[in-house]
Write a structure and sequence with these properties.
Number of domains: 2
CATH architecture of the largest domain: 3-Layer(aba) Sandwich
Distance between the termini: 16 Å
Shape: globular
CATH class of the largest domain: Alpha Beta
Radius of gyration: 21 Å
Length: 362
């Protein structure tokens, strides 16, 4: 759902999916890629796409993406040593990787997919250094390989544990730590390339995540205290599942600092369009945070909304409502960041307002 919200600029009250089921984008879809492509940007999506299948309308090359490399279907993206990745509409076999016959579990592990994905992202930047470009780099680490977790008891597949090999930790935690370190290293490689190409002051880099920490494949959220005081984790609409980091890096434009402005993935479409000087899609639910990036006064959204399976959540300023099977619990995030105390009975007007928003979006 978060991937579709990012591309379409809509919250999950308006998107076609609110779970992990595959959604095939129809041929007339308007996405951030298609808008920027029409404006003259070279567009790329590298890594996990998850909104189409081979030969269907949801393929990235049919959705405003000039260059694609990675996994088209999310069910393919659990194996870090896959037999193949997609280069546009062609399968590219990865040397030395053979499937074991168990879904998404390799018997031979030679070519690490994350490494190939990163190399292709760097190459795209290099090829397009003299033209405006938009790169959506969707790494899968530190996502777990659920199938490997079931069959091999360790879903955090990495080439090696590196500096963590001698730690007195469970194997999945060594793998998780190695994945996070690898992500940090490869983020640095991208920033180094932009600096070498003299593109740093002309390029906005956004670093964020599509969900909170997971508890799968043998990894435990509390092992590294990944969520601190936040309640829940991936697949929860409590803040532990949906509050994620976001770093905006744009030397010369974005001043160093911290903001408490609450934004969401669907805000990216109007933000990118404003920065590119083009019109956003009129059906977007998002609010541009470009003024914030430029150090100007930033408007606040009326509300944020999430839908996942039978759960619904609404945030209005510091008030957060989470509904399960129609029953809403209300929290004051200013004084109760861990969402422990339901105060709906004490603030019926706020609770009723959130319930109205939910009912209107059903």
């Amino acid at each position: 759902p978060s991937r579709l919200s990012l591309l379409k600029g809509q919250h999950t009250g308006h998107t076609a999916i609110a779970g992990n089921n595959t959604h095939i984008l129809p041929p007339d879809s308007i996405t951030i890629n298609s808008l920027l492509q029409d404006a003259g940007y070279r567009t790329a999506s590298v890594g996990k796409w998850a909104l189409g299948r081979e030969g269907e309308t949801g393929h990235p090359n049919k959705q405003g993406v000039d260059f694609f490399y990675g996994w088209i279907d999310q069910s393919e993206a659990h194996d870090y040593y896959p037999e193949y990745l997609w280069r546009n509409e062609e399968k590219e076999r990865l040397p030395g990787n053979e499937n074991s016959g168990k879904k998404n579990v390799s018997s031979q592990k030679t070519t690490y997919a994350h490494t190939r994905v990163t190399e292709e992202a760097l190459a795209f930047i290099e090829r397009n250094k003299d033209a405006p470009f938009y790169l959506n780099l969707n790494w899968t680490i530190p996502h777990t390989n659920n199938e490997a977790g079931r069959f091999e008891k360790n879903g955090q597949e990495v080439p090696d544990w590196g500096i963590y090999k001698d730690k007195d930790w469970p194997d999945p935690e060594k793998g998780f730590a190695a994945m996070v370190t690898l992500m940090d290293t490869d983020t640095g490689r991208i920033l180094d390339l932009l600096e070498r190409l003299d593109l740093t002051e002309n390029t906005l880099v956004i670093f964020t995540s599509d969900n909170g920490p997971h508890q799968e494949g043998g990894h435990k959220v509390n092992f590294f205290d990944s969520n601190g005081p936040l309640k829940g984790y991936k697949r929860s609409l409590h803040d532990g599942g949906i509050r994620v980091p976001m770093i905006a890096f744009w030397p010369g434009t974005v001043k160093p600092g911290v903001s408490d402005h609450a934004s969401a993935f669907w805000d990216w479409m109007p933000t990118a369009c404003e920065l590119a000087g083009i019109k956003s899609w009129n059906e977007s639910d998002g609010l541009s945070f470009a003024p914030l990036l430029h150090g100007k006064e930033q408007k606040k959204c009326d509300y944020l909304f999430w839908r996942w399976s039978k759960f619904r959540a609404v945030r209005i300023d510091h008030w957060k409502g989470v509904a399960t099977d129609g029953k809403l619990a209300l929290y004051d995030l200013k004084n109760d960041l861990g969402e422990e105390n339901d105060i709906a009975a004490k603030h019926p007007k706020i609770a009723n307002k959130m319930e109205t928003i939910i009912s209107e979006l059903e």
